[in-house]
Amino acid sequence: MPIYKTLQINETTTAYFWHITEDVTSLFRAVSLKDTSLFRLEGMKSEAHQRGFLAVRMLLQYLGYTDYDLTYDASGKPHLGDGKQISISHSHEFSCICISTELMGIDIEKCKEKTLKIAPRFLEIKHLEGLSIPDKIAKATVIWGVKESIFKIKNEVGISFPEHIFEDEFDLIDGTCSANLYFNNQIENFNIQFYNIEEYIFVCVFPKN
């Protein structure tokens, strides 16, 4: 299907969402891939992963880019040829890219019970106290997305979600929160915005100046 949603995060940052209803063959025929991307695609065992990968290229085409404009550095971080910042995420039926003049990181995650079951491994349980089960799932999903997004920004080996990234107290209704990274004898602070996209949580993280 065409682009599902555009979300204006701030004056210089926009997120674009593709609802993946197509099969792999349809998506593959609609995009042009460079050899390295074709090699990556062929190595993916999961059809869902392949569809997510190709839907990202559909979004790039929608914005006037091609797969040739997207490169990855040695640590796997994506870059655009025009120098703009890009972050990429996909989960089940959605792929998302975010374009900005600011450094940022994004994550989209489907709300599911599994996230709540593993929550003690990556967050402080006090964040979930007194909430209904659906709100616990949603909040755990936000926190996971925050940590994933911060990791994408930093992209450094050794960062641990439970040991190095700590989210401040927040309410789901606010749509915003903050978090801190304690790593390599430094403290870095981040501002976060999060949104509901159907049964998904979308998170966008910016380093504080």
**Strand percentage, roughly?**
25-35%
Number of helices: 6
In the CATH hierarchy, the third-tier topology of the largest domain is known as Ribosomal Protein L22, Chain A
Shape: globular
CATH architecture of the largest domain: Alpha-Beta Complex
Kindly, what is the distance between the CA atoms of the first and last residues, rounded to a whole number of angstroms? 38 Å
- The percent range for helix content is 25-40%
Strand order of the largest sheet: 7-11-10-9-8
The helix-and-strand class reads alpha+beta
> Quick check: average pLDDT?
95
Largest sheet: 5 strands, antiparallel
CATH level 4 superfamily of the largest domain: 4'-phosphopantetheinyl transferase domain
Tell me the radius of gyration.
17 Å
Indicate how many domains the architecture comprises: 2
Order of helices and strands: EEHHHEEEEEHHHEEEE
Quick structural overview:
Helices cover 30% and strands 34% of the residues. With 209 residues, the chain is α+β, with helices and mostly antiparallel strands. Helix 1 packs parallel to helix 3 (47-62).
Secondary structure topology:
Layout: E1 3-10, E2 13-19, H1 24-30, H2 35-42, H3 47-62, E3 70-72, E4 78-80, E5 85-91, E6 94-100, E7 105-110, H4 113-117, H5 133-154, H6 161-164, E8 165-167, E9 176-183, E10 186-197, E11 200-207
Antiparallel strand pairs: 1-2, 2-6, 3-4, 5-6, 7-11, 8-9, 9-10, 10-11
Helix pairs in contact: 1-3
Write a structural description.
The protein has helices at 24-30, 35-42, 47-62, 113-117, 133-154, 161-164; strands at residues 3-10, 13-19, 70-72, 78-80, 85-91, 94-100, 105-110, 165-167, 176-183, 186-197, 200-207. The chain has 209 residues and is an alpha+beta fold. It has two domains: 3-102, 4'-phosphopantetheinyl transferase domain (Ribosomal Protein L22, Chain A, Alpha-Beta Complex); 107-207, Ribosomal Protein L22, Chain A, CATH 3.90.470.20. Strands 7-11-10-9-8 form a five-stranded antiparallel β-sheet. The chain is globular. The chain starts with a strand and ends with a strand. The mean pLDDT is 95.
